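Q: What structure does this chain adopt?
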Amino acid sequence: IHYAVYLVTSFDVTGRRIYVRDKEKTSIVIGELGLREIRLADGNSATAAGDIFGLRCSQMAPVFLEHIVKTLPSVQGQKILDLSAGTGAIGIALAALGCDAVLTDPETPIILDNKEHSTTLEFLQANVDRNPCLAGTACAKKLGWGDQEAAKALTAHFHPDFVIACDLLYNPESHLALARTLSILAAPILLAVRFRRKDKREHAFFDLILNQETARKHNLRPFSLVDKVQLPVEDQIPSAYAYHLKPFYHTH
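A:
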């Protein structure tokens, strides 16, 4: 397991900088936020039969984190549910800033580089446990996309002010399950997307939830587009965007 440490300079009124430092002690600016130090592990050496793309911290995570903080009406006390928690980088960072964050994961079995058997949910919770001194709260919960009972049970105890998701439209076969989960959560969404596919099949997800006729055909709650902003990732090919979506609460 490789460790990444997020280091922060002191706060000043003109801007707050976050740096990433790896074990070779190299540092790069990744955003303008006020954030205490957080510790994370990534799963570059983990193996699994299922999808463990999320154990590699997305290149979009730093700029998406900055975008989230700028978009939220207030960071302190916001209830955030992360549908793409992965290493927990974004959710834990938001908790460090004062949010109450629930980080979700489907609990895929994995084998770590020391041959230890674990799950992606345990891996995520371990990253949460590495950061006990947060201004807000963070916890890891099991949630598979399309598991409607699990989503209902989760929202019975925690109804989010915002759902966040980063870089999770790369598999078109998961779009309907993701849309079903978002329908149940029924909260505003901040979604970061990187358009990797030449056939632009990522756009099919937006047709699924933004087109009211299509959404109702699949028994989904439709959403409306509030805002769309291009994210300043280092490599603009493929392009990356942040979407702000709002649910229709009355669909008839």
